[in-house]
Design a protein that fits this description.
It is found in: Cell membrane. With 688 residues, the chain is an alpha+beta fold. The chain folds into 5 domains: 21-103; 113-216, OB fold (Dihydrolipoamide Acetyltransferase, E2P) (Beta Barrel); 248-502, no CATH class; 510-545, no CATH class; 552-679, no CATH class. It is built from 24 helices and 16 strands. It has helices at 12-27, 33-49, 56-75, 82-103, 190-197, 219-237, 240-251, 259-267, 278-297, 300-305, 308-326, 331-348, 356-369, 377-398, 407-434, 441-466, 473-494, 510-523, 527-545, 578-587, 594-598, 620-629, 652-658, 675-679, and strands spanning 113-126, 132-141, 152-156, 169-177, 199-204, 210-213, 436-438, 500-502, 552-554, 561-565, 568-571, 610-613, 632-635, 648-650, 661-666, 669-674. The strands form 4 sheets. It has a 5-stranded mixed β-barrel with strand order 1-2-3-5-4. A 5-stranded antiparallel β-sheet has the order 11-10-9-15-16. Strand 1 (113-126) and strand 2 (132-141) form a beta hairpin.
């Protein structure tokens, strides 16, 4: 009897599946880089989604598995090698994110502190309330050993008097506390944000800040002082809020902007003009590139015989680097610089500057440098807009319909299409993070962005170049007219009827599903990949529509309680704990103020238990007595020693372990979710 070949015993569908798989992998040749960027981002996202920090042994095993998968990908590169390569890149994203977490690790304050604070000023900005705020390093605190002292602390001042320059060593007496946790389960995690910023404590002082030592040296501090010098100079030469806007878009200093201007820019979807990001970096680099190339074009012998396009790209790169340092080198600016550098590098190498491949390279480099940026709206909106614009204009170019983009009519249509595409791509992300949508954002951007690109940015740049010669007044005056126009547009659009609509925050699953769908849709070139991306987007939409807000929210200190009613969330306090109250109302999609929410009528639904919420520790005893008479949910900002029979206690001791609490009442039962459940046991979470 002849031996049977094992391969012939396999069913025919297996061979068809294998052939289709090999064909799919090979069809991606030349288009694999976007998929690698998606895989790397998935790995980073998985790290931040883990409930516990992976032990070092597990990380070492993952690193070894990554190497094995890379070897398998190389060996199988003629067939299905791209699949193990994708998995290897995803695992490397997880490992890189954990390595970044370990690199930035530092002591975090574990309790409230009052006493002497001393440190060197490294950042001067303003809080949400407009108070001057100092970030200090080389910190000294009373009764703290050096190894227990946070590397950086942030202190808000009470007045604008004598705000110190960066580099000054200062001392004061103030209150510090650990970085606050999310205001509700699934909310913004400031503790994680502070961990990657190196902030181990935040607080305030009510006494003057004294200079302990003279200005210290160092390149970073010299740049910070130069930025402050430029900002003060711009404000002196361009009076009013126009000067504050000029300082913001040049040096990143938004400290002097009024709350009215800031709110109008947000309501009109023009707030992105203040953030030094891809738009500003692109406008500056584009202006320098085309100015230099245009200058070369005036010399026919150079334009016809030499690669002036490459020369212009090489000349624009140092200006992008200078703008990076001038603007303070924030994460958003670093991301913008990397994207600009990749585009200019593509020109230097003779490749297309605007391609999805360039966007993928920029995304990988940004995530290698700052993996935590994946979780922020800046990264998500920047790459969503850039990727969507590249895909839209690339499709038009390939279809042969790009001829309409020539001339003034083409410039207007290109601007309109850019605003629509970018707004469509970033709108869901902005609504998810900020719970508001500017209904007339496209109109505002059409009226404002051309002025920013063709007048304000070039003239401010020209004015800075002419400043040493004393000839800056002309360019700055014209730039002021453009800024005043933008401020007028923002105010007009913000006051249109229905200019802003509010949206409630969806469940936490919506953001990763939405992001993955957009990434897959951008990376795909075939119907299967694009279909998968669309399925993810539709799934995210259904999850968003099906999301509901908690019936009851309790702050992490027990002082604030909010119950959902037919007319919006009722709060047990009209003042105090204002940041938490505003955060809850925004997440509800409610534009009301805390005082309005505190005055709402609250009628206890029939299927809810009785709620006894004490706003202050001094009132706890009365509410405990009430709960003994009418058993139900007993909430308060102090520890309850003896809980009456039939009462469910959510007191200070309980909240210290759990953080803020969200409760849903379902068919007579209580379903409770806590911040500690969502955060898990990570390096940046408190030890509960």
């Amino acid at each position: 009897m002849q031996p049977t070949d094992a391969a012939t015993t396999l069913p025919p569908p297996f061979f068809r599946f294998r052939e289709n798989l090999v064909e799919s992998c090979q069809s991606l040749r030349g288009h694999r880089l976007p998929w690698l960027a998606v895989a790397f981002g998935v790995g980073v996202g998985l790290y931040f989604a883990l409930p516990v920090e992976p032990p070092l042994v597990a990380t070492a095993c993952l690193a070894g598995l990554t190497l094995l998968l890379l070897a398998a990908g190389i060996r199988l590169r003629g067939s299905i090698g791209f699949l193990p390569l994708m998995v290897a890149v995803a695992l490397s994203g997880l490992v890189v994110a954990q390595a970044r977490t370990a690199v930035v690790a530092g002591p975090v304050l574990q309790f409230r502190y009052y006493g002497a604070i001393e440190g060197r000023v490294v950042i001067v900005d303003r809080s949400a309330s407009g108070a001057p705020r100092l970030t200090l390093d080389r910190v000294r605190l009373d009764r703290f050993a050096p190894q227990e002292t946070p590397h950086r602390v942030r202190v808000s001042m009470q007045t604008d008097d004598l705000v110190p320059f960066p580099g000054t060593r200062v001392m004061t007496t103030g209150h510090l506390s650990p970085p606050a946790g999310p205001t509700e389960p699934g909310g913004f995690d400031f503790q994680r944000h502070a961990w990657f910023q190196g902030l181990g404590a935040v607080g305030y002082t009510r006494v003057p800040v004294l200079r302990a030592e003279a200005l210290e040296g160092g390149t970073a501090l010299a740049v910070a002082r130069f930025r402050q010098f430029l900002g003060d100079g711009l404000r002196a030469r361009i009076p009013g809020q126009a000067g504050q806007v000029a300082a913001a878009i040049t040096t990143g200093d938004r400290a002097g902007l009024s709350s009215e201007v800031t709110e109008a820019l947000r309501a009109s979807n023009l707030a992105h003009l203040l953030a030094i990001s891809g738009l500003h970096m692109g406008l500056l680099v584009g202006f320098v590139f085309w100015a230099i190339r245009g200058g070369f074009a005036l010399v026919p012998s150079l334009a016809l015989n030499y690669p002036t396009r490459v020369w212009a790209a090489a000349a624009a790169l140092p200006f992008a680097l200078a703008y990076l340092f001038l603007s303070g080198g924030t994460v958003a600016t670093q991301r913008a610089f990397i994207m600009a550098a990749v585009m200019l590098g593509a020109i230097l190498l003779g490749r297309r500057a605007l391609s999805i491949r360039s966007v993928a390279i920029a995304a990988i480099l940004v995530l290698l440098w700052r993996p935590e940026s994946l979780t922020g709206p800046g990264f998500q909106m920047s790459f969503a807009a850039t990727g969507a614009l590249v895909l839209a204009f690339g499709a038009l170019s390939r279809s042969g319909r790009g001829s309409w983009m020539r001339g003034w009519k083409g410039a207007f249509l290109s601007l309109l299409l850019s605003s629509l595409v970018a707004g469509f791509a970033t709108g869901p992300i902005a609504a998810l993070h900020f719970n508001r949508v500017g209904q007339f954002g496209v109109l505002a951007n059409l009226l404002a962005v051309p002025v920013m690109g063709f007048a304000i940015m070039p003239l401010l740049f020209l004015g800075l170049l002419l400043w040493p010669l004393g000839l800056e007044s002309g360019p700055f005056w014209i730039a002021r007219q453009g800024i005043d126009w933008i401020l007028w547009v923002a105010d007009w659009v913000a006051n249109l009827p229905g200019a802003v609509s509010y949206m409630s925050a969806p469940s936490w699953q919506v953001l990763p599903v939405l992001g993955l769908g957009m990434a897959v849709l951008g990376a795909s070139r075939g119907p299967w990949g694009r279909g998968g991306g669309l399925v993810a987007l539709v799934t995210a939409a259904f999850l968003w529509v099906g999301s509901d807000r908690p019936d009851l929210l309790i702050s992490d200190d027990g002082r604030l309680v909010g119950a959902m009613t037919e007319n919006g969330r009722w709060l047990n306090r009209e003042t105090g704990v204002g940041f938490v109250a505003q955060s809850w109302l925004e997440n509800d999609g409610d534009g009301a103020l805390q005082v309005e929410a505190g005055g709402r009528l609250f009628h206890l639904p029939l299927d809810w238990p009785q709620i006894h919420a004490a706003p202050t520790p001094g009132q706890m005893a009365d509410f405990v007595d009430d709960c003994a008479v009418n058993p139900g949910l007993l909430i308060g900002p102090a520890e309850i020693a003896d809980v009456p029979d039939g009462c469910v206690s959510v007191d200070a001791a309980f909240l210290k372990r759990t953080g803020a609490v969200a409760i849903r009442f379902e068919q007579g039962s209580i379903r409770m979710q806590t911040v500690s459940e969502f955060q898990g046991m990570r390096p940046w979470t408190p030890k509960r």
